[in-house]
Amino acid sequence: MQALRTYLADFISLIFPQLCPACNSSLMANENILCTDCLYNLPYTNFHQQHDNIVAQQFWGKLPIEAGYALYYFNKGGKVQNLVHQFKYNGMQQIGNLLGSIAGKQLAQNPVFKTADYIIPVPLHKKRLKTRGYNQSACFADGLAEPLNTKVELDNLVRTVATNTQTHKSRFARYQNMQEVFAVARPEVLENKHVLLVDDIITTGSTLEACGIELLKVPGLKLSIATIAYAE
């Protein structure tokens, strides 16, 4: 019976092959979501081993963060861009959970990130959330939670204004676009806590900065930042 199931699974995969969302190659029977080559050879940053990495430096003089991190380097037209596109726009939420798990295992090796009390994803406005059906940053946060042995705090950091896309804006325009966009609904929950703020891609950091400004208004709050990718 088991042999028959294996045969049928192989037959179905031959006709309707599952493809790696990063490189578009067919997945083997023992591969899940990512092919083995991409799983091991995507451009990892190893920022969890570097306290003064590029992500942390991006907030120097702007936000007093404890630590900064990105899992991958993001290059236009590269495999990470393919991966994030499939995750963000084609409904492959499982990609976010997988990448969160990979990142969480790295961050669990870092004593700063291990002290996080809550993980908070950058929120979508309710209109955008209704259109997309899910928040990609929340999927990433869910994957991070187990290896870091901490909790995801949803609906506390809220987006009060529906902004336009940041994609084609200049650095200054992105900063302006994010002013007074976010608010903390229940600050008492976060008092004297270490919060890990997470997003999908960091470019100028304006969205994360705007979120961080609001979070750091909470008494005693310490802030760290983690993303799936850093855009060079």
TrEMBL record:
Top-rank lineage group of the source organism:
Bacteria
Q: Where would you find the membrane-spanning parts of this chain?
A: none
Pfam families, sorted = Pribosyltran
Which interval of the chain is the signal sequence? none
Stored InterPro entries: ComF/GntX_DNA_util-trans (IPR051910), PRTase-like (IPR029057), PRTase_dom (IPR000836)
Q: Which residues form the Phosphoribosyltransferase domain?
A: 140-229
Q: Which Gene3D superfamilies match?
A: 3.40.50.2020
The Swiss-Prot or TrEMBL record describes its family as follows:
Belongs to the ComF/GntX family.
Question: What is the protein name for this chain?
Answer: ComF family protein
- What species does this protein belong to? Mucilaginibacter phyllosphaerae
